[in-house]
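Supplementary Text 2. Reproducibility record for the structural model of the 467-residue chain.

All settings were left at their defaults, and a single model was retained for analysis rather than an ensemble. We include the record here because the model underlies the residue-level annotations in Supplementary Table 4.
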Amino acid sequence: MVQTNVTIDPLSPASPVEKPEIEEVLDLTTGEYRSATELIRSFRYDHLIEERGRVRSALDSAPLYKCALCPSAVYLVSSPEKRFFFRHRHEDGSCPAQTRSALNQDDILARKYQGLRESEPHKRIKELIERSLRADPNFRAESVVQEKRWYVSQDRAQWRQPDVQALRGEQRFVFEAQLSTTFLDVVVGRRDDYRRGGAQLVWIMAGFEPNNRRLTTDDILFSNNSNIFVVDEETCALSETAGEFHLRCSYREPYREGDTLKERWAERVVRFSELTTHLDTQRTFYFDFESSERELWAAMDNELRADFFAFWTASMTPHCATTDVDPWRLLRRRLAARNVPIPERPDADSNFSTMIHGVLSALKGEPVGWQFKKLVQVAHHLAEMYPQHVLAFGHGLAVAGHQDAIEKQDPKGRWRERSEKLKNRLREADAELMPDRDWLPALCFLFPDVGARVAKFLAKAEMRNAA
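Retained model, structure tokens:
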């Protein structure tokens, strides 16, 4: 039996082809050369599908990537097995990397697309959409039309011909039937044109099977907050009976299982009035997958941070030391799943423990982890013994608003004088004061506000050095 489609778990890592013609690309946003395979692998599958749409949308105006060997901009395409690679925007034979055949996949899909637009299934879905809209008085009856040319701008050469369009109040909605070979250029082109014209695009399918998805379906699904809409005989009949436009919505629903984020598919028939529309992103959705996913990750991360600090307080502060390291091993595994390394044992690396105690002291406004009596003593200790953590300590003070505590404990101005010198050295990116990169992921995860500021400082320092 020949396999005609490969469906990929949205949460799995994206896969590159084994031997891409374009092995390296220039990231025009960061100015870095990047391995094409490593760049693709750095994305989750659903996120790479979104990225591929973003890359295609920017291709003609401000490309995001170019070939490392020639001036051509590049974009992401896929093999039939949904393994990804970069292709030249223009190929004239001058580059050693050849990514196009005489008739490439885009040309094939374009020909198929034009043929399907007049097929009976396509005509049928347009009829069902129109009937559903006419049943809903919230859409102006005279505005509901099929295949009518609509001018995107004052330029009469800039026009589109949506499958169905209608006005709901003053907002124009355009409905496009998603065909089995609706390729990315069509998806991106229509989305961008309708955005410029102030119309909200809604893609409609005749049916949807979450476990048998084509790439062309994924291009729409993942760019639309993981919501897919279907109009069929049942929803059309319900629209006409209820006097309100109804659609069948399939969407991804995330949930947690311990420290793991999982997801399931859900489906329900919804009223059009229940949908959220974002004109700027051309998204129309019922269930906010991205917000739900963020909330779950935030809850799991906060719980993990709380568990870490509970152990740290019980094990690594004076008079509370414990020899039980089993909880630490568990914390280490849980943090490793977030790509956050920590030492093998809580007391194995004084550099790490000093970083944690230094930031905790700054945030709490009093020494944590030392026998010092005053916060200013912590500041001097870091400057003398662990200067690489002075920046994180300073940002901790700023985040918690405890700079005044230091000043009150510095009547002779010794710390003020020292801190001014440290600030000047930081402006010059003194190597001795550069934050420890080995533990930067832990700093960013355990102390997000402080870590973000330190990471921003390092990024700016690198840009100055590169210039």
